Amino acid sequence: MTAQATREPAIRVRGIEKSFQDLPVLRGVDLDVEAGSIVALLGSNGAGKTTLVRILSTLSRPDAGTATVNGIDMGANPGRVRESISLTGQFAAVDEVLTGRENLVLIARLRHLRNPGAIADDLLARFSLTDAGGRRAATYSGGMRRRLDIAMSLIGDPPVIFLDEPTTGLDPQARIEVWQTVKKLADGGTTVLLTTQYLDEAEQLADRIAILHRGTIISSGTLDELKRLLPAVEVTYVEKQPSLEDVFLALVGEPSETDTADSSDRSATTQKGSR
Amino acid sequence: MTAHAVGDTGVLTGRSLRHILRSPDTIVTTAVTPIALMLLFVYVLGGAITTGSDGSYIDYLLPGILLITIASGVAYTAYRLFLDLKGGIFERFQSMPIARSSVLWAHVLTSLVANLVSVTIVVGVALVMGFRTEASVGAWLAVAGILVLFTLALTWLAVIAGLSAKTVDGASAFSYPLIFLPFISSAFVPTDSMPGPVAWFAENQPVTSIVDTIRALFAAEPVGGDIWVALAWLVGVLAVAYAVAMSIYRRRIG
Q1: Is the dihedral angle over the CA atoms B2, B6, B11, B12 positive or is it negative?
Q2: Where do the record's region annotations for Disordered lie (chain A) (predicted)?
Q3: Contact (CB, 8 A) for B22 and A99
Q4: Which of A73, A259, A261, B139 is the most exposed place for a label (fewest CB within 10 A)?
Q5: Do A89 and B92 touch (CB under 8 A)?
Q6: Which of B79, B90, B96, B105 is the best residue to mutate to test the A interface, defined by the most A CB atoms within 10 Å of its own CB?
Q7: Residues spanned by the domain of B233
Q8: ipTM given for this complex
Q9: In this structure, is residue A76 part of a structural domain?
Q10: Residue A58 belongs to what domain range?
Q11: What is the pLDDT of residue B124?
Q12: How far is A146 from chain B, CA to nearest CA, in Å?
């Protein structure tokens, strides 16, 4: 990760401010996201996460500050920014009247791609939705809807993807499915900026974590860097109990997150039991 | 980007037309109320109404019924637009590299198609009920043109309602006065049977000139100056509603 430090960041945010009426929501946000990395924007409800994502996905204009995506200035050229981004908003943005496949074909057409049908079929297969592809999205479960939502965002291979609270409201299996999807995206070179209020989600997924609190980034870095902000580690012996999530997943017969989501560069997960 | 505007609008229009195909009740309910009114006025009340014209009452009534059909149909446009705004799909479209106005135009074109289908159903029922016309092909085209203009004008009003509504009910409530307006016009009874101030209002509100023009076209009579008054109203309302809707839309999408 340190080797990439000199490259132009995929997302560069400088001094973004935004108020709604008299209520300041963002008070000068600075953030860099390296190309091909996953950055988690961690914050509680009302911290300004969604406001920042809306600004970065050109849905809202900041009162002050600048932002560039792939070197393109957001304020000067929002049209070109839209060509390199994709947004998966907080609430699944699928057309419930259309089938899953029709949703994908719709987006492929709007992105002016050739063979929208083939693109749709490929994504249905990648997201295990082939059987459900002919059903209306209104009949989908929350997890399926979210998968379709993310699949729609991947059409046209945008280099930068914004995910606003991608797992809020999902059951544990669906969360893990989403996590796996996001990791695969980053492995394929896509830059991902996601917001979350779940600490474990940030821990599991993110190369870097930025903590947004009361409208500014109060701290950012890798998980290890953030941990070093606290006093030195004290070694204590704690019996490793399975978490309720481990138990639940074992009982319903789905793989536990530590089996599927653990990867060599994330030593963080080994500390899970000590919390 | 504008090179794609037409294509994007086409794709999005296909999407909302598919919505209508999957809930055809929106077209049926649009046609049911005007058909019920037509039955009521022709078979129950019409016998007591003196129109002063030679033709049957249904010939007199149909133009106003067609306007009521369109006025109730555009409520669904506001409703569909409102639902798009409430769900996330609108923001997805706005964050994509597509022509910004194509989202609105798709709803407008869908409204046009849906209302023309409803109007065709109502005209079909009217023919069964004994509506007869001397109209030439040219006159039919002129009627169609006026109805298209009327639909566009009311649809852009519906866009304003859909963009600014806070609730689903609010989105369609704007259409009630529009549906009611033909009743205080020459659509059902001649305006000279009304008391002074009401007659004055009826004669000077847009529906009367539009209804009189369509009636004259169907009867193969000269339209006189009415058509210019009607066109002035239609183009005026269309232009103002379009400008207001677009400015609300631009503010809305930031």
Answers
A1: positive
A2: 255-275
A3: no
A4: A259
A5: yes
A6: B96
A7: 2-252
A8: 0.83
A9: yes
A10: 2-85+158-234
A11: 93
A12: 12
